[in-house]
Write a structure and sequence with these properties.
Elements: H1 2-15, E1 19-21, E2 24-25, E3 34-42, E4 51-60, E5 68-75, E6 78-86, H2 87-90, E7 98-107, E8 115-125, E9 128-139
Antiparallel strand pairs: 1-3, 2-9, 3-4, 4-7, 5-6, 5-8, 8-9
Length: 148
Amino acid sequence: MSRFFLAISCFLCISTIVRATDIKYCNDNAQYQVKVQGVDISPYPIARGEQVTFSLASNTDNVISKGKLVIEVSYFGWHIHSETHDLCDETNCPVAIGDFSVAHSQVMPGYTPPGPYSLKMKMLDGHKELTCIKFSFDIGFGSSVADM
């Protein structure tokens, strides 16, 4: 019986560390070359002043040798931040046909206000949009650089 409670306790601890997030495509009618099955956010909930990793489980029917990730963040619907990254810094290039993962990590600034955020991420090869997804997440009242 005690092993059962230990297993349940471990499961509950792990379930707060990673959160699978539902995604929506920016254009439901688009035929994107890259299909995204979901996003894992780790750790979750996200705490200010701490590193967070967004991992995208993806699939492609074509080899991708280069590209960019364009990330746009909104807070309560207001655009607050944009950044661009080399795709090959976020995954292994060339990306082979089939399943692959894209992982982006960064530290949330200590002054980041808690609340609901939405993120729009485009994967581009030159000017061609390989995929475009949107998802939501929350930043909690956790630790911040000022608290340390």
